[in-house]
Amino acid sequence: MVLISRGIKSMQNILRLGSLNVTRKMSSALGVVEGTIRSKLQSALEAKHLDVINESYMHNVPKGAETHFKVVVVSDKFDGLPLIKRHRLVNDLLKEELHTGVHALSIIAKTPTQWDESDKVVESSPNCRGGFGK
Q1: Cys-Cys link to 61, which of 65, 98, 99, 108 (CB 3.0-4.6 A)?
Q2: pLDDT 10s per residue in the chain (134 long)?
Q3: In sequence order, what are the residues at sequence separation of 6 or more whose Cβ sits closer than 8 angstroms to the Cβ of residue 65?
Q4: CATH number of the CATH domain containing 60
């Protein structure tokens, strides 16, 4: 098990190696948008591994916001697809969320073989710089 600390006590993401993963904020329940993203990706992609990480707390948004996400999805459906088509597939599945409140979506899309060959550590996103390259 790999523990990645996000620097805020109430926001830790646990990445479990191997089987389907459930990533949640330790101090609060699964958010509505986060749950919808998880459900859509799991259902459509039959994910072998799935992390949905709410990174909104790293940005200048109200507490509890669901506007910035990172997804790590591993699926057989990515076999033979270049990275850009994998990202388009994920974006198409989440089109409604991206038009109704999700401001940013970081995507890591791998095949099971690529995932098995990786170190399975997801790098933390950089801190928000306030927008406009500040």
Answers
A1: 65
A2: 333 333 332 333 333 333 334 344 433 467 999 999 999 999 999 999 999 999 998 888 889 899 999 999 999 999 999 999 999 999 999 999 999 999 999 999 999 999 999 988 888 888 777 765 54
A3: 56, 57, 59
A4: 3.30.300.90
Q: Which domain holds residue 33?
A: 2-7+20-117
What is the amino acid identity at position 102? V
**Cα–Cα distance for residue pair 21/124, rounded to 1 Å:** 17
Per-residue 3-state assignment (H helix, E strand, C coil) for 46-91:
CCCEEEEEECHHHCCCCCCCCCEEEEEEECHHHCCCCHHHHHHHHH
Examine residue 131 and state whether it is found in any structural domain, yes or no.
no
